[in-house]
Amino acid sequence: MMDEPASIDPDAATVDALVQLSFLVIDELGRIAAAHDLSLTQVRMLGILRDRTPPMLELGRHLTLGKSSVTGLVARAEARDLVRRRPDDADGRGVRVGLTDGGRALAAAFTAEMTARIDALVAGLAPRDRDRLTGLAWQVLQRER
Amino acid sequence: MMDEPASIDPDAATVDALVQLSFLVIDELGRIAAAHDLSLTQVRMLGILRDRTPPMLELGRHLTLGKSSVTGLVARAEARDLVRRRPDDADGRGVRVGLTDGGRALAAAFTAEMTARIDALVAGLAPRDRDRLTGLAWQVLQRER
DNA sequence: TATTGTTATACTCTATAACTATA
DNA sequence: TATAGTTATAGAGTATAACAATA
Fold first, then answer.
1. Does residue B61 lie within 7 Å of nucleic acid chain D, judged by its CB?
2. For residue B28, what are the CA distances in angstroms to A107, A142, B25?
């Protein structure tokens, strides 16, 4: 559930450790986001937009959100001058979303704080162990694509 | 941000891998929860209540939620017969929250599905690597207490 | 007075359905 | 007719402030 004691299943310890670590990491990200008055969804949106200016639907696909959810998300971010909506030149129905300078700065600030915080989390590990953890996490991620 | 490319910082790869893996794990848990019409918060609450019958404020402390948030959370779960509220014998102001049989069954079902899903995630790792990952995750968690 | 909990209120996030404008 | 997006509406989650009852 997230604070299970290890039990009969020999892999329960693995599940446990992974789930707890994941909650820890996501909580940290949420805390950093909240300090900037952002939700994790807003943060993810800013991250996506750093190297793209997608139409609304495509942005929604990246976030696994329906189009009306994206409308609201973008509207709130636009009200804070973090993103901008422009009509799509190629498609008269389309609207493309892009970062403003302020949005870009906020995304950069978040990334910096996130890196510092996660680095601090693994600071207790020996460099070799840090590399092992990175490699193992990567292996798990690779199989999920 | 969650899909950063590795870059200058030698530890960026570690941050990246950890954040992405965490989002993956939490997303999976969210999917399982959603399949049972539960939010992650509801799931966490059920997990906490498996071996406790705490007062509202204490439940809120476990979830890092304010008391009014807990009131709503518990009210919705109570409406679905997952939890029950009882006056606290020891404190006339207090209300204790506990699982119903249905809530307990749902918590157990969730745990089983979660274990299966996370096990599947790490199924690609050699047993020795799985143990290493578990140990490393644990090391990180230990230092955070 | 301090503490436990609920109520009132408000805002974000998400979803479904109906609607508009363009393709 | 199909697609891109918005609007209307509704429910969950969270927070703050005001309030009730008990300590």
1. no
2. 26, 16, 5
Under 8 Å CB-to-CB from A60, ≥6 apart: which residues? A66, A67, A69, A70
Looking at beta carbons, which residues of chain B come within 8 Å of A20? Answer: 137, 141
Q: Are the beta carbons of A119 and B24 separated by less than 8 Å?
A: no
Query: Residues in chain A with pLDDT < 70?
Result: 1-10
Mean per-residue pLDDT of chain B: 93
Q: For residue B97, what are the β-bridge partners?
A: B85
pLDDT digits (tens, 9 = 90+) for B15-54: 999 999 999 999 999 999 999 999 999 999 999 999 999 9
- How many Cα atoms sit within 13 Å of A4 on the Cβ side? 24
Nearest Cα residue to A38 out of A116, A105, A97: A105
Can you give the distance from the CA of residue B60 to the C1' of nucleotide D15 in angstroms?
13
Helix, strand, coil percentages, rounded to 5, for chain B: 65, 10, 30
